[in-house]
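Data card: per-record layout.
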Amino acid sequence: MDTSLASLTEVSMMKLIAPYLLCMLVMLVAVPVLSRAESPERAPPGVFIGTVIGVKSGEPVPDVAVIATSPSFSGERGAVTDEQGRYRLPMLPAGTYTLRFEHPDFNTYSRSDILLRANRTVRVKVELLELPPPPPPPDPAIVKQTRK
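The structure for this 148-residue chain is written out next.
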């Protein structure tokens, strides 16, 4: 009878301990995996892509400087649009960005609070307003007459 009582106690103990052991095993595997997924330093980078066109012409604008700034990193990241007005800013950490678009023949344009998530591509299409043409130079004949 003593052996059956001891055996019964062992079975009861195993039934109590087994769920705890299983829980510990799951925690040992899950915690490192989940902590790695949450780490922003290890998150896959995001990408901004898009096109820039002129408002009046509706045509793509080449050679536009596209500059990205964010509190997620120091400094700026930039790209230049190609002949079709396309740009690509790859390998950016997740965060909130401001994109600035600059060209000497167009008004500078900025778009703020653009959310870029890890391992995502965000498309930003921009229309730039052409600057008015500069006034023509004064006629030399008119300038001479006013000096007399």
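Known properties of this structure: The beta strands are 46-54, 65-69, 77-80, 86-92, 95-103, 106-116, 121-123, 126-128. The first strand starts at residue 46 and ends at 54.

See the next section for split statistics.
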